[in-house]
């Protein structure tokens, strides 16, 4: 069963390039994190493309080495699109591949149309979660226009007892950034979706922390105000499942 909930909507007014941030960290339940017994349940987390095939517990139990492969893939995570230019590209790791891009509907050849004044369509200013997921495919970023782009990641948890996989859990996070027409307000909305858990796990009590911030601003004299839910923003798996929309303007 797929559960789709909106976590938070944050609005930022700034003279800066729109790049929706997406960093989520997981916290083990306190009782498990402090357990001394060797038989205690532990968890390893992996961040993967949003449309990746979810981890299969039976396969992990038969091929434990797959966890090492996932760990090596997770060491370097892109923070900025490959297309980032200028001073901004030095602020954080770039994606290794170009972002997926929106393909506008085709238009009739100019020769078949009556002569008219040259005009350009207004770039899209909105994006749905369905558009984000479809656009990302296996990419890290999807650029619909300079006013609407998104990033997304799949978060997989493998639960272990005595070092052996005994359960899995999974959720996706989307960060969709948009700028309304004739506005300088950037709205970044975080969506937590597709929660699943299998076999032995501690997912329900696991804390999930979402981080988003403006780490650099240029020119340095630019002024901005920031609203919305204050980050880092931590909720347990169970709280996110039961959350409705939280919006601050």
What does this entry look like structurally?
This protein is mainly beta. The protein is 13% helix and 34% strand. The protein has helices at 30-33, 57-62, 65-73, 129-136, 237-241, and strands at 4-13, 23-27, 41-48, 100-101, 141-145, 148-161, 164-178, 185-199, 207-211, 225-226, 233-236. The strands form two sheets. Strands 1, 3, 4, 5, 6, 7, 8 and 10 form an eight-stranded mixed sheet that branches. The radius of gyration is 21 Å and the shape is elongated. The model is unreliable at 1-19, 30-37 and 244-249 (pLDDT under 50).
- State the separation between the terminal residues, measured CA to CA: 32 Å
Oligomer: single chain
Shape: elongated
The low-confidence runs, each spanning 5 or more residues with pLDDT under 50, are 1-19, 30-37, 244-249
Give the helix level as a range of percent.
10-25%
**What class would the helix/strand composition place it in?**
mainly beta
Please report the total strand number as a whole number.
11
Main beta sheet: 8 strands, mixed
Integer average pLDDT: 74
Portion in beta strands: 25-35%
* Overall radius of gyration: 21 Å
- Number of helix segments? 5
N-to-C order of helices and strands: EEHEHHEHEEEEEEEH
